[in-house]
């Protein structure tokens, strides 16, 4: 049997070249000779008929359309005998599964994959019906399997169904049922995204306006200290002193850096100052004479001639519209303004009301500043609820839950003043559940996590946050991240989660200044760029000004964040009197040795006759049990009496040792 050279190469079964096809047919011919039996004539003629060229088909008198490649292979597969005998069974080559769908109109080679393929196209089915009927029995065709049908329909169902995306749900919880503390939490899908707290012991002074008196002018610091009625004097830099307070006339184009502060400011001078940074530790509050009165839609700046619009309003059409609104409102000369982000989609009436309120407020402050004697409080910032609603409320907040009726009335009054476009579907409700408000929404555990140094990550890693006097150090630990992943992928996953979580923790804890993040070392430069991008994207939600550096070859990244307020832990925690903020105390053995050396030094004096040591219980027991022989030796050598008295109520870091002369 010769090789089949009439069939094009693309119509043969996959992977079968001309050489393989010829070898298979020669083997089949030898097998057919061995199995040939009497009474089955014409097999060789039938075989020859099966190899005939397709051009011989019209000789039968039937008119048929030009067969496609699939039809040609099907016709060649029907190797029936002209005498009506049973067709010879050919060996079926091994079935190969193809992941790509077969092109429409193309059938497999005879006896190959075509028997299990999808049904032919309609025009192919019609071509098969037009074949001449033969008395021989046609080879039995297997129906397409159901599994194949399911596999072809499944992708259609998947493509028609869009991927489900969780909708972001914002809720504001206000806890004011206790007079000593007021707390606000902004929840995003049940997760705390913002946390604000104000206590009686740590009331906020930022934004208050005072009439103060200059107590000292420091030429070396180019700053002045102002008494504004608190325990610590405020710090007033020379750059924050308005030219109207200069004692001498200065040219208009003179920069303050070119002037000595002692020539333009004198001790005892009265000034109007505003607190821009809270007092922290031993440092007093930072003050400025450039006053600002924030409203809902606009910030009024008396004594300034600047005017601007928030950078977050990017639409030029919206910016022009706001400029026209402000120009139509009569703002006196010498008073600047900044249009806030919340002014988008507002009406001219709402903006005019805000401007009118701020102008009346400034007139009242000026009047009190002229009549009251320094130091005095001229204007006190609003409480935490009104302040949050004014500065942070957005139309995305769907629900506001309050556990106090007075705070609820305050929220409703604020919502009624908003334009309809900003109010939208925000609903204020009074919490009436049996459980406290924060417990019902599982907020208390998340708040406690804010005060802990270690923050666990979702995949098993963690970040450790250590605020210091000079900077904030954040260390990233992989832990069990990516247990079944490669080493590089596990490190990348831990750093990506840490990048998102650390930005959230900086907002929640109000940490500012220089922040150094120690990421896990990564080898792939692409992963390094992805982590840097993740940090920048996560910090976009922060209202504070932030600056970043690239990750160094040691895995360190520097972040500079503006200090918006004192750290949240300042108002709720105090420094431990035992460890003094170190977080550790000396061990019992070390404390016992320290006290024993102190006793050794004291008994060497000639006039000491008796030593009385009052020590914590564990330390005293250690000296009496472990240092008994040394105590007896000290008493004999120095002729003194040493008494060790355990004190059960004495803190572990305290002690009292008296050296008596009698």
From TrEMBL:
Which GO terms of the cellular component aspect does the record hold? Answer: cytoplasm
What PANTHER family is this protein classified in? RIBONUCLEASE (PTHR30001), RIBONUCLEASE E_G-LIKE PROTEIN, CHLOROPLASTIC (PTHR30001:SF1)
Its taxonomic placement starts with: Bacteria, Pseudomonadati, Thermodesulfobacteriota, Desulfobulbia, Desulfobulbales
The record ties this protein, via CDD domains, to: S1_RNase_E (cd04453)
Name the InterPro entries on file.
NA-bd_OB-fold, RNA-bd_AU-1/RNase_E/G, RNase_E/G, RNase_E_G_thioredoxin-like, S1_domain
Q: Name one GO biological process term.
A: rRNA processing
Q: Where is the region Disordered?
A: 1-167
Protein name (database record): Ribonuclease G
Q: Where is the S1 motif domain?
A: 207-290
């Amino acid at each position: 049997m010769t090789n089949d050279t009439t069939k094009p190469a693309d119509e043969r079964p996959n992977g079968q070249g001309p050489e393989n096809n010829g070898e298979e047919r020669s083997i089949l011919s030898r097998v057919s000779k061995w199995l040939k039996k009497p009474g089955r004539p014409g097999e060789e003629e039938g075989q020859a008929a099966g190899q005939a060229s397709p051009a011989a088909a019209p000789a039968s008198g039937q008119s048929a359309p030009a067969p496609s490649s699939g039809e040609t292979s099907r016709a060649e597969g029907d190797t029936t005998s002209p005498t009506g005998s049973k067709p010879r069974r050919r060996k079926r080559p091994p079935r190969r599964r193809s992941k790509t769908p077969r092109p429409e109109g193309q059938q497999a080679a005879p006896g190959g994959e075509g028997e299990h393929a999808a049904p032919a196209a309609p025009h192919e089915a019609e071509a098969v019906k037009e074949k001449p009927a033969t008395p021989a029995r046609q080879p039995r065709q297997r129906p397409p399997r159901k599994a194949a049908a399911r596999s072809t329909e499944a992708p259609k169902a998947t493509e028609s169904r869009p991927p489900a995306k969780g909708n972001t749900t914002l809720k504001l919880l206000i806890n004011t049922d206790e007079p000593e503390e007021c707390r606000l939490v902004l929840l995003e899908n049940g997760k705390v995204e913002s946390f604000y707290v104000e206590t009686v012991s740590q009331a906020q002074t930022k934004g208050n306006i005072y009439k103060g008196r200059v107590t000292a002018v420091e030429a070396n610091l180019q700053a002045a200290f102002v008494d504004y009625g608190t325990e610590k004097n405020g710090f007033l830099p020379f750059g924050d002193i308005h030219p109207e307070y200069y004692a001498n006339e200065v040219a208009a184009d003179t920069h303050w850096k070119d002037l000595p502060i002692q020539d333009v400011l004198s001790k005892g001078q009265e000034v109007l100052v505003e607190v821009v940074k809270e007092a922290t530790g031993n440092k007093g509050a930072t003050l400025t004479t450039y006053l600002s009165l924030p409203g809902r839609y606009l910030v009024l700046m008396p004594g300034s001639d600047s005017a601007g619009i928030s950078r977050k309003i990017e639409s030029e059409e919206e910016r022009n519209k706001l400029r026209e609104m402000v120009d139509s409102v009569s703002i006196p000369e010498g008073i600047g303004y900044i249009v806030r982000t919340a002014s988008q989609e507002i009406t001219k009436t709402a903006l005019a009301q805000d401007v009118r309120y701020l102008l009346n407020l400034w007139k009242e402050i000026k009047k009190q500043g002229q009549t009251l004697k320094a130091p005095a409080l001229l204007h006190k910032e609003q409480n935490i609820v009104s302040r949050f609603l004014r500065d942070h409320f957005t139309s995305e907040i769907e629900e506001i839950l309050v556990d106090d009726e007075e705070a609820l009335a305050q929220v409703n009054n604020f919502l009624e003043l908003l334009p309809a476009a900003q109010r939208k579907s925000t609903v204020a409700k009074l919490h009436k559940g049996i459980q406290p408000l924060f417990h019902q929404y599982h907020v208390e555990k998340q708040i406690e996590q804010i005060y802990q140094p270690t923050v666990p990550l979702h995949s098993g890693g963690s970040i450790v946050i250590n605020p210091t006097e000079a900077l904030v150090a954040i260390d990233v630990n992989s832990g069990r991240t990516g247990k079944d992943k490669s080493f590089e992928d596990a490190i990348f996953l831990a750093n990506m989660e840490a990048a998102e979580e650390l930005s959230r923790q900086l907002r929640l804890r109000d940490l500012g200044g220089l922040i150094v993040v120690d990421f896990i070392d990564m080898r792939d430069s692409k992963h390094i760029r992805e982590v840097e991008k993740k940090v920048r994207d996560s910090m976009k939600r922060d209202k504070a000004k932030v600056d970043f550096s690239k990750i160094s070859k040691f895995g360190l990244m520097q972040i500079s964040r503006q200090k918006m307020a004192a750290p949240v832990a300042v108002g709720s925690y105090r420094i431990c009197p035992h460890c003094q903020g170190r977080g550790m105390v000396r061990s019992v053995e070390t404390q016992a040795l320290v006290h024993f050396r102190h006793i050794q030094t004291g008994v060497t004096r000639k006039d000491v006759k008796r030593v009385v040591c009052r020590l914590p219980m564990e330390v005293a027991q250690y000296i009496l049990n472990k240092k008994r022989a040394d105590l007896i030796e000290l008493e004999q050598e120095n002729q003194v009496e040493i008494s060790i008295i355990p004190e059960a109520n004495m803190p572990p870091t305290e002690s009292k040792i008296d050296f008596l002369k009698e």
